[in-house]
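Complex 246.
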Amino acid sequence: MSWRADVLTLFPEMFPGPLGLSLAGRGLREGLWSLAAHDIREHAKDRHRSVDGTPFGGGAGMVLRPDVVDAAVGAALAEMPDRPVIYLTPRGRLLDQALVRELAAGPGAVLLCGRYEGVDQRVIEARGMLEISIGDYVLSGGELAALTLLDACVRLLPGVMGAAESAAEESHGAEGLLEYPHYTRPAEWAGRAVPEVLLSGHHAAIAAWRRAESENITKERRPDLWARHETQRGGAGAIAGHPAAA
Ligand code: 6GU
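Predicted structure with 6-chloroguanine bound:
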């Protein structure tokens, strides 16, 4: 069984979207992973097909009903129940490459995309959902976040990336450093020359230069990543300890 994603959304037409193209799309067609988007509305109970309600306690917006969401999650989990249920929300823990690697190494995921004000808290707890955010800004729904998370996971699946890119991910991403700068022909363009060392054919010197560039750009732009790189060696798994990882 290949890596499987089931997405629960009010806008299933948003999938596969960009994931049907490029590396992810080829992987999808080759069966290296699979994706199914399900309309949450199909699990509505009443004849009005209502999926949401006004918030108890008052306030703006609508909240997705726990009974409807629970039915959608149950149906999605039926075939492969040993997958984490992820709720995409700006309240979640920040997605990073360590969490992406853990998810990609597992059997797949069920992804719940919120709209409106959110999802009833009880079904989040009852289903032991892992709440994930893709960054500190607010999107109008979880769909673009789900596409982002899936893209990040799928490119790590065996066979999706070429060997060269896979090697780069291992040596680089794994260390938590930003990429060194890249150059191609022409060797001089608009009065700007390519760094001399890259034309030298001296592989050890090139590797050292690239390493230094990576370290410098990381220190300069992302002191947070640099601090983590310097202190963190290994550590607990990103989803270990979460109910969904048990
Ligand atoms: Cl996961 N959802 C929404 N609606 N906005 C976000 C997000 C998720 N991550 C960052 N912003």
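Residues 203-221 form the longest helix (19 residues).
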